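Re: the 387-residue chain
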Amino acid sequence: MLDDAQEPVLVFINGRSGGNQGIELINGFSRHLNPLQVYDLSAGGPLPGLYSFRNVSKYRVLVGGGDGTVGWVLSGLDFMKDHLKCPVPPCAVLPLGTGNDLARALKWGGGYTGEKVMQLLYAIEDADRQPFDRWNVKFKDIQQTEGADECKTVTMNNYLGIGLDAQIALDFHQAREDHPEKFNSRLHNKGVYLQLGVQKTFSRDSSAELHQVVTLKVDDKFVKLPTGLKGIVLLNIESWGAGSEPWGSQIEEGFEKNTYSDGMLEVMGLSGPMHLGRIKGSLQNGIRIAQGTNIMITLTNNLPVQVDGEAWQQTPCTMEITLLPTQALLLSKSTKPHYQKGLTNRQARSLIDKSSETAALIDDTNFSSRRTRQELKKGSSASALFK
């Protein structure tokens, strides 16, 4: 058995993230850790790794990829929770995506800068555990009749956008779909986002002002939207748009500080592309509208919507945003100068253990990632994987 001091790390890296960085990191971690501790998410998703750790009572998770990759692993933990001895392990983030807003909010930075594997392992050992709110977003089509199929639901970790910022995210997604070979570096991806924002600034804007086509209710109270809004954003974390902090830190009557563990979302507005650009340049904040726990939004027109960077064109609907009952546990990077230290033998063994005792607990036999994908497509519960 593992002793109380041991807390091995389970590493998930998206091999397709960060250009060649993802593959290089998979190889680097594989040289230091038990092979059963390192998984390439692009080759089967998170469930094979979580299944192999199902009998480990205490462990940490490192997720290497963009914010969407972190959400993928957290959703995997949700799916497997009834079959894991440790259903809420603390998770650290290694930023390999484009915006990396969740990594920024947790002080892991805006991108991987070449740290050595042992440095990263020490950072995980030294990190602070933080409870983290997550949100359920339910979409119900306005035309939907009673008895129709279930509403579409998604989980939100970072933010939700309607209008302007969602349109830019949608345009970016379309550009990447059209020319995937060009989107192979974080720098290029950021450049495309910047270009799309500039195009919005200088193009004629014929979109409706959102106060005409959107109604907002926060904690059972209708909230009047300011006129002239082109975008609405709901924030769970302070970082948005690849590092901007649009809620701001100034004290204002009726509003609290933006944190990811207070059970509230911040609702802010964007007046247009120029305003968005000034926010990203740290010259201005978003327009504060409301804060609350239970939020209902009604769209009466087709509008672009994005959740954690995944964008689509949404038909008229009601959107109900509610707090999930269980918080995640994420790791915030310590501000101590850990790179000047070294792992002690005990700390190293806590994270890196190639012993037969660990191998006996970590088991990936009789598990097929192909079968996992088939069960997920059918909407099966995790129990189907254990038959």
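The longest strand covers residues 135-141.
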